[in-house]
Amino acid sequence: MKIDIIIAYMQRYEFGHEKDFVPPITGIHLAALTPAQYTVRVIHQQVEPIDFDTDADLIAISFFSGFAPAAFTLAKEFHKRRKTVIAGGPHVTYNIEESLTHFDAIVTGEAESVWKELLADFCDGKLKPVYKGEPTDLQDIPTPRFDLLPNKFFIRKVIQATRGCPFTCSFCTVPSLNPGFRLRPVDDVSGMLLITTSGIGGKGRSCGFGMIT
Ligand code: SF4
């Protein structure tokens, strides 16, 4: 089975985003969680063209609410091509009914706990409409597939050292989407700092970027 993971994007500011600054980590993280018997690609719509003629069996789209129109358009185009399209991310987590009008299945919350089950269900022709992901223990997660990051972002690499937030601001999705403040093991984080991606090194640009939420 072939899976295309797409990180949806659309330009939202007339004068903003002059640089494609920081690469999202979701796609390369999901790719790392994907069992080896499957073939996986990661496409960042922000910097790469969408391959609508892909031979992938499953299209998985991740997006924030601000990029929802782009994600819905992608789903429509892939459905025209008879592809199964699933989605995850904050928008689908808080808009389940709406999301199910656009996608064949959605993952709410954090995907780690249900990703392999979803892929197995798809292979068996038993895809469920909603997979409810639970908060993940960061002790056991794999190293993201940095090799699948396009060499087109200003920051070439992102390392996730923590997840969640110790605060609970009422307007923020983090406390409910990523509850608790969780730390990745220090050895994992320092190990990821040593992994280079193509094109990094000798260019006078940092390859490490700590994301603290
Ligand atoms: S991530 Fe920021 S806005 Fe959200 S709860 Fe934490 S401190 Fe508040």
Strand content: 15-25%
Main β sheet profile? 6 strands, parallel
Instruction: Assign the CATH topology of the largest domain.
Output: Rossmann fold
Small-molecule components bound: iron/sulfur cluster
CATH class of the largest domain: Alpha Beta
Radius of gyration: 17 Å
Task: Give the % helix.
Answer: 25-40%
Indicate how many domains the architecture comprises.
2
User: What average pLDDT do the residues reach?
Assistant: 90
Could you tell me how far the N terminus lies from the C terminus, measured between alpha carbons in angstroms? 34 Å
- Element order: H for helix, E for strand: EHEEHEHHEHEEEHEHE
Q: Trace the largest sheet across and list its strands.
A: 2-1-3-4-5-6
Would you mind describing this structure in some detail?
- This protein has 213 residues and is an alpha/beta fold.
- It folds into 2 domains: 131 residues, Rossmann fold, CATH 3.40.50; 65 residues, no CATH class.
- The protein is built from 7 helices and 10 strands.
- The strands form 3 sheets. The protein has a 6-stranded parallel β-sheet with strand order 2-1-3-4-5-6, sandwiched between helices. Strands 7-10 form a two-stranded parallel sheet. A two-stranded antiparallel ribbon has the order 8-9.
- Helix 5 links the parallel strand 5 and strand 6.
- The longest helix is centred in the middle third of the chain and has 13 residues.
- The C terminus is likely disordered.
- Iron/sulfur cluster (SF4) binds next to helix 6.
List the helices and strands and how they pair.
Blueprint: E1 2-7, H1 26-33, E2 39-44, E3 58-62, H2 68-80, E4 84-88, H3 90-94, H4 96-100, E5 105-108, H5 112-123, E6 130-132, E7 159-160, E8 162-163, H6 174-177, E9 182-183, H7 186-193, E10 210-211
Parallel strand pairs: 1-2, 1-3, 3-4, 4-5, 5-6, 7-10
Antiparallel strand pairs: 8-9
The structure holds iron/sulfur cluster.
The site of iron/sulfur cluster has 8 residues, from α6.
